[in-house]
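Give me the fold.
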Amino acid sequence: MVPEGEHAIIYRENSNVVNLNLQRMVGQQPAIAVDTKKPYKEIDIGSFTPGKHTWEAPYRSDWVIAIGSFNSK
């Protein structure tokens, strides 16, 4: 189980910009993006620290961003 504040899922439709409010995030966390209109493929977008961020996608689509480690322990 992932403790609260160590992960987030953000979904945005028909956009190439995603605003992220991660003020309650605990420390720096890894992040991936997935274009939900295409076959599943994770795009490594680096990591985010607590705070407000803007991620610019490479093109307009429906995007999901997963922040944190979702591996079960």
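Residues 5 and 26 are 5 Å apart (CA to CA).
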